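Researcher: If convenient, please comment on what follows.
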Amino acid sequence: MRLPDEVDTPAQINIVPMIDVIFAILTFFVMSTLFLTRQEGLPVNLPQASSANKQASIPARVTLTVDKDGKLFLNKQPITLDKLQAAVKEKVKPQQSLLLVLNADEAVNHGKIVAVMDKVRLVEGAKLAIATKNK
């Protein structure tokens, strides 16, 4: 039985905690998608090419980076030109081709790139691709 001086308060749903939870979930998804991008090689200023094509997926892939100072990095690990051929040979598996992506800065001397390409072409089973950015 209700007393006459009691006021009937309408039921309310407090949505402030729900908004906090939604923003927390949104923040989680935004932060997690930032880590889903795959960064291959080291950041360099790639040359532009209007005829650039994407390579079909090849199971074994290695990135060779040549920075603007001419330093070589095989999968982000420093390497010298003399040891490059042996290191690429180690990465080639039997019955499987290896795609070596040359990620060279546009300021690198042409002679350095030719020397790198020559070393890679001597490795049996290694294919060479040059990374560019579209115009």
In short: The two ends are 79 Å apart (CA to CA). The chain is about 30% helix and 20% strand. The longest strand covers residues 60-66. Residues 60-130 form a domain with the Nucleotidyltransferase; domain 5 fold (CATH 3.30.420.270).
